[in-house]
Amino acid sequence: MNIFFITQDDPFYITVFFENFLKTYPSLDEIKGVVLCKTMGKGRYELVKQLYNFYGLHDFIRMTGRYIRFKFLGYLYGQLQVNRFYDLRQLLHSYNIPIIYTDEINSKEFLDELASYNLDLIISVACPKIFRENLLCLPRFGCINIHTAKLPKYRGMMPNFWNMYNNEKTTGITIHKINAGIDDGEIILQRDVTIDPEESLDTLIKKTKKVGAYMMIEVINQIKEGTIQYIENDGTKSSYYSFPTEKDIKEFRKLGKRLL
Predict the structure, then answer these.
(1) Beta strand pairing call for 99-101 and 31-37
(2) Rounded distance between C-alpha atoms, residue 105 and residue 227, angstroms
(3) Which pLDDT belongs to residue 72?
(4) Structural fold of domain 3-254
(5) Greater model confidence, 161 or 82
């Protein structure tokens, strides 16, 4: 089994997924590489502006401090080869997993490079880019995605935020095939995850990333064994959410919810 991941360069949450996946997955030689796109697919100025609007001044300062700390410790521990991980690149380097930096995942040049790996499976973990047809058809078993909601509900962006916003008692995790639609492919595996009353968005995202890592291992094993039973992702029962506006975030806080 030859596997490639496509994700984004995020030290806060994606690292949680990969740390738990890599320390548990028994066949790391199957991981041929990880593609890192820009965080949320945005340039630095645009990203900072969006995060400032999302977090507000106080939480933005806290997140900026956390980012600087994670990047510094990731670099330092990478130089010292300490198995404590604060940065996704540090983590991947420690496991000797190749990294490709690109946002052009549908370009001919990138697809030609991927084709040289004779891939069986491509896995999207919070990839901020849309997979086009030529990419979807490239691996033998297709492309799959992990989405932190119970599809078909809560398609789109920031599903953990919207589950909390709507006072749901649980969120979900879904691993599904990727097709031309948004979070529309057939469902492979789903689990419920409890939202604790005092949960912050930060802790909920970390919790779902950790659970999702173990679910992904389960799905890969099902693919190897040929035991997958697909579940319909019924579009007639779907709901879709976009990135929260400042008004949404103010309402979120009025409900007594915390981002951090």
Answers:
(1) parallel
(2) 30
(3) 81
(4) Rossmann fold (3.40.50)
(5) 161
Q: How far apart are CA 26 and CA 34, in angstroms?
A: 17
Structure tokens at 32: 């041929």
Q: What is the CA radius of gyration of the chain?
A: 18
d(C-alpha 17, C-alpha 6), whole Å: 13
Domain boundaries, the chain: 3-254
**Residue from 106, 240, 245, 104 nearest 182 by CA:** 240
End-to-end CA distance of the chain: 39
Question: Any idea what DSSP says for residue 188?
Answer: E
The residue behind tokens 């806060």 is 12
Q: What is the phi/psi pair of residue 7, to 5°?
A: -145, -160
Residues 6 or more apart in contact with residue 164 via CB below 8 angstroms: 171, 195, 199, 201, 204, 252, 257
The single-letter code of the amino acid at 79 is Q
Average pLDDT of the chain? 94
Structure tokens at 41: 């697919």
Q: Is the pLDDT of residue 111 over 90?
A: yes
Sole residue written with tokens 């975030």: 249
H or E segment and range at residue 145: strand 143-147
